[in-house]
Amino acid sequence: MSVQPVRNADLIVINGRVLTMDSTRPTAEAVAVVDGLIAAVGDNATVEALRGPDTKIIDARGGSVVPGFIEAHMHLFSGAAELAHLQLAGVSGLDALREAVLAYAAARPNQRMLVGQGADYTILGSERVTRHHLDAILPDRAFIMAAPDHHTYWANTKALEMADVLHGRELTPGNEIVMGDDGLAEGELRENEAFNPVLKLAGEERVRLGLSTGGEPDPVPEGDERAGDRAIMRRGLDWCARHGITSIQNMDGNFYQLELLSEVQAEGDLICRVQIPFHYKNFMTPDALDKASVMAERYDGDWLSSGLVKMFYDGVLDSWTAVMIEPYADRPDWVGEPLFSPEEFKRIATEIDRRGLQIAVHSIGDGATRAVLDGYEAAAKVNGKRDSRHRVEHVELTTASDIQRFVDLGVIASMQPPHPPGAMSFPLEPTVSRIGRQRWPYAYPTRTLIEAGAHVVFASDWPVAPIDPIEGMQAAMLRKPWAEDMPDQSVSLHQALAGYTVEGAYAEFKEDRKGQLKPGYFGDLVVLSADIEATDPAVLHQVRPVTTICGGRVSYQA
Ligand SMILES: [Zn+2]
User: SS3 sequence, 393-447?
Assistant: First the structure.
């Protein structure tokens, strides 16, 4: 009788506090990877039996070893491009803004349009930012800056003039160039149609196409231009690997992004698995979904995939563009304007569902969330109930009755732990006053949804918030109520980790392949600098990825 020789491991991680997220074996010391897949999980001795002369050994030195993080909602291409923008997070007051803008401008004397990002809605305190503030800082060069949520930009006069929007422009509902009493634009531009003409001048239209129109670049970039775009993608993938991310669920997209990533893959540099959706906009007609079906068919691999349709139902609270059931607390005659009518949304959702595709809809207000759930319910009625795993992105506000519908309809709630005001980088105001005391109990209802039994995935929405999943876990665990009588929405370490691992895998229909450290699963894991279970949550952000491994290959090493 002959014994099949056991193949040696390509890579072994030893001496770890392994949190497998596999309920049949929650903890271990070591993990072995063969041919990109996990071959063994267990104690050091058992796993080291697979060690051969060429096996790479990684000593975790008692640090946690967890499944590679799955980022369930982010924007790879534009986020990567924005790493080069003026970073305004944490900048407060006109003097500090002036200092930051002037230094950035001085270092880029030939740049046609200067772009800042991460400017809080309250960067000038209670005073609303206008073009006049920005003119006082930089009168003769075009400058624009984005709010962290990217739903509002502020432009100076020069930028408004160059983009020919100083006198306003006709826009579709939900978009607004805020006009002043003098009949000229004030500088505040709400939503894509309002700020795209200005952003276009920055020459980064291509990186935002997947978000702004879902369309393809025309002409198709070749040569240096295309190589530059691939370099942006690589920079974004590196940024993800550095933060322990091994899978990305991108929330904007087109063929161009998939093609660039395939080229990066052919060059051997695709170091994260990426899912790119088709973006359906309200100016399209349902036949545009043919493209979504082709994307799904053509890209269906372990490394690059599609199969998802992203939509926006509303905007954001801070610019009153989120859709509410009852009026805004600080604008009693206004509930927001949806980007689709409820009937239109039902029709489109039914058509997407009929094609067997998954749907993810940006929905912030409780009115939007209700309409989106209604759409999913309508689709299931017409097409029959199936394992559709449609998603609602953000769910910043909802109601008690709709919480239960997430469970009943099998809809995934995609939550961003860094987003609740006061949780990480976003200030309490103006958001909490806009929501109003009455709605606070169902604002950002992470724990309520988890305890109700809904599937909840976690993400950053980078570049809206910092990408770091560990900071996200910390924000989710340390979430504080805005008032004593509000329900506690904080989660446990295990729930936080699940939101960035197993739940993310479920959202991709890949819970049989990723999100856990289990034999046969992808060799996607992260070795952390400390034992996260023994770390005080207050300093969890100090725990850093030391080694990120994706498909058995080291994608980041500190
Ligand atoms: Zn997003």
Answer: EECCECCHHHHHHHHHHCCEEEECCCCCCCCCCCCCCCHHHHHCHHHHHHECCHH
